[in-house]
């Protein structure tokens, strides 16, 4: 049995107090260690390609929470952005077990074709919509397919796998290694790829695309623009996932489509707060965590017995 207890994955708005969150955390802590001792020490593999500070910090925070709760966490860190090779985020360094993989030659070629180190600077100058990504979609998708190509000969016995759904290579790797307890942790509020795989609505007439330049009040023309942006997001996701699947051929013998891989996780956590973000229909498999933070100092407090 695989039990998920959202210890620190608490979605709350600004009206909630830290005391309430801490009380929930202490309750879950006591429940986990006394009622379900069998989940102590489970080995967790977190697939975390080194592509940017925000993604590193987000997934490292998730890993830190699990490690702090007694899980044996390993970060698998294939290098993509070589400008971050010597960057040691404090939250990442707190994880006891890390497997760092050198950059794949194909990834290096793709980055050089994008402008080398200048490619990182484009992140801060390009627009917030999908158009900037669409212009470099083939080179960007090469980063993930080459990384996936070089990862599948690494094997170790682990029990739980975590990955962002921006790529499916992590899910395929978990399946390849025989890890059947898989979770998806999305640093976005909801990408088109996972929604397509699970049949969740991406109706562009009233839902903004994942990378949209629109707002909650749009004209008819802006709705049409949002439809086009939704199409570009969908095309972007399909290109990445199809090339990932091609990179696994001959090695991975599991699922045949990326949609099947995207459906492997038991739960799809998203970095969304239903009280603050744009309202949208959702399935029970998608869980909004509304931001993730790890306690800097752990306080082991014995709660009073309830008679």
TrEMBL record:
One of its GO terms (molecular function) is glucuronosyltransferase activity. It holds the Pfam family UDPGT. It catalyses: glucuronate acceptor + UDP-alpha-D-glucuronate = acceptor beta-D-glucuronoside + UDP + H(+). Its EC number is 2.4.1.17. The keyword Transferase applies. Keywords: Glycosyltransferase, Signal, Transferase. The keyword Transferase applies. It is an enzyme of class 2 (transferase). Belongs to the UDP-glycosyltransferase family. This is glucuronosyltransferase. It comes from Caenorhabditis briggsae.
